[in-house]
């Protein structure tokens, strides 16, 4: 018996959930047509070998054999669909760090400005915050090496590292005449994928930015905190999934399960019928039946769409905003052995509880709300969606492209947020509004920055 390790991800960018499964060798009996197809495949492989040898011997400069092979693998996978690809060893490690949401580092969110690293904000209770690093600080040197000339990813990689190791930062701070030298000791950093605040004095607002291994626990923590702070006057919750590119399948399932008492959450269907898997909810609603509004837009993809689709089909939440991205496929990450990277291979489509595939269509909100976009941003705030990607998996019926993804930086200008507030306060009503406390949740219906 052969054991194969793979990773399942749902993301417009990247993400993973570790899955172990066992495959049994199967006896294969081939007829004449199958033998002919196999023979043709081997002829094509011989052709590849001939081309490879010709490039090695005749190219104007001596090529790197490893890079040639990696490029060939990459070309084979990217020719399948937009989400299948080859990851070299470093890319594979970076993906694992991202999906764990936990790494050795300093605890600062940073961006690049004029070739230097600018601090967006220190993360609470991390080496950076304890050392007094502040938003808008400019980092010019890392261990005496100038930041100028490095990419943002290169600088972030230098700031990350094993726990309990040291790094020296040179910082320019507005109002200080001389640069500040700070030596930090790296610690275990957890990326906060869930943030919350009290909205309008009686609503719990929860923003989920990605679905990593910390997301469900973060959701539970914030719901408990908001419930304790607001008390009996709590009207309900707003779950903001806008511009959330997705992440772990398992986290999308457990986040959905947090709001549902029963019923299917999602099904995944591969090439063969026996590969179909269905995930169902367990009893226990984290919010104790409070109304829920989910905000989505053109940047809400994959795992975000699973959550929105499950809560919409079960009429557990009202979906507000603009049509989502439309990534309805599942990728499996298949490690290729020590130091050889991994394959990201599309292996299934996923379906909402009512049996809808959102591939190249997206989740249509119950209430569409368009934002007022500044003139200078109008050409840059719409996402074209999955249907616009070359080589995307096709779907039956009309595919949809283009959806607004702009979120106003000031909450008072956020029309989708205002609509959610009004719905929870009863100022506006929707036929598909979230249930009131104590109502029964029925089954599915056929209703249509970098951190370091």
TrEMBL record:
Give the region (Disordered) as residue ranges: 378-452
InterPro entries linked to this entry: ClpP/crotonase-like_dom_sf, CtpA/B_N, PDZ, PDZ_sf, Peptidase_S41A, Tail-specific_protease
**Is the keyword Hydrolase in the record?**
yes
Query: Which keywords does this chain's UniProt record carry?
Result: Hydrolase, Protease, Serine protease
Pfam families registered for this protein in UniProt: CtpB_N-like, PDZ_2, Peptidase_S41
Compositional bias (Basic and acidic residues): 378-401, 410-425, 443-452
Q: Which GO terms describe its molecular function?
A: endopeptidase activity; serine-type peptidase activity
One GO cellular component this record assigns the protein to is: outer membrane-bounded periplasmic space
Task: Give yes or no: UniProt keyword Hydrolase.
Answer: yes
Q: Which GO terms describe its biological process?
A: proteolysis; signal transduction
SUPFAM superfamilies recorded: ClpP/crotonase, PDZ domain-like
**Which positions fall inside the PDZ domain?**
92-160
SMART domains xref list: PDZ, TSPc
Q: Which family does it belong to?
A: Belongs to the peptidase S41A family.
Q: Which NCBIfam families match?
A: prc
Protein name as catalogued: S41 family peptidase
């Amino acid at each position: 018996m052969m054991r194969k390790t793979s990773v399942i991800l749902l993301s417009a960018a990247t993400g993973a959930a570790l899955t172990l499964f066992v495959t049994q060798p199967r006896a294969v009996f081939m007829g004449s047509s199958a033998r002919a197809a196999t023979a043709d495949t081997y002829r094509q492989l011989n052709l590849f070998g001939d081309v490879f040898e010709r490039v090695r011997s005749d190219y104007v400069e001596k090529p790197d054999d490893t890079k040639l092979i990696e490029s060939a693998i990459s070309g084979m996978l990217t020719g399948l669909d937009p989400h299948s690809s080859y990851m070299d060893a470093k890319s594979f490690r970076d993906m694992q760090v991202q999906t764990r949401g936990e790494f050795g580092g300093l605890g600062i969110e940073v961006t690049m400005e004029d070739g230097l690293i600018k601090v967006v904000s220190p993360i609470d209770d991390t080496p950076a915050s304890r050392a007094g690093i502040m938003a808008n600080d400019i980092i010019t040197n890392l261990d005496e090496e100038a930041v100028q000339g490095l990419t943002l990813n290169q600088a972030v990689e230098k700031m990350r590292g094993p726990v309990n190791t040291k790094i020296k930062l040179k910082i320019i701070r507005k109002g200080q005449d001389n640069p500040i030298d700070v030596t930090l000791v790296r610690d275990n950093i957890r990326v906060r994928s869930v943030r919350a605040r009290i909205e309008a004095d009686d609503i719990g607002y929860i923003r989920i930015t990605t679905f990593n291994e910390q997301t469900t626990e973060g959701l539970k923590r914030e719901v408990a905190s908001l419930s304790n702070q607001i008390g009996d006057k709590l009207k309900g919750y707003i779950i903001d999934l806008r511009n959330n590119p997705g992440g772990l399948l398992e986290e999308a399932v457990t986040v959905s399960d947090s709001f549902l008492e029963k019923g299917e959450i999602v099904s995944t269907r591969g090439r063969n019928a026996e590969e179909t898997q269905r995930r169902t909810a367990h009893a226990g609603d984290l919010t104790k039946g409070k109304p829920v509004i989910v905000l989505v837009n053109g940047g809400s993809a994959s795992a975000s769409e699973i959550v929105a689709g499950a809560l919409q089909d079960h009429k557990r939440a009202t979906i507000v905003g603009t049509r989502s991205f439309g990534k309805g496929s599942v990728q499996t990450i298949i490690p290729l052995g020590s130091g050889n990277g991994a394959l990201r291979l599309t292996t299934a489509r996923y379906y909402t509880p009512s049996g809808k595939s959102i591939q190249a269509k997206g989740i249509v909100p119950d209430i569409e709300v368009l934002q007022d976009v500044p003139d200078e941003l109008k050409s840059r705030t719409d996402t074209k969606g999955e249907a616009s990607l070359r080589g995307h998996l096709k779907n039956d019926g009309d595919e949809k492209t283009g959806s607004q993804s702009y979120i106003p930086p000031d909450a008072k200008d956020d029309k989708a947020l205002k609509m959610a507030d009004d719905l929870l306060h009863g100022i506006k009503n929707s036929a598909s509004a979230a249930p009131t406390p104590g109502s029964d949740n029925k089954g599915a219906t056929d209703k249509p920055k970098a951190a370091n």
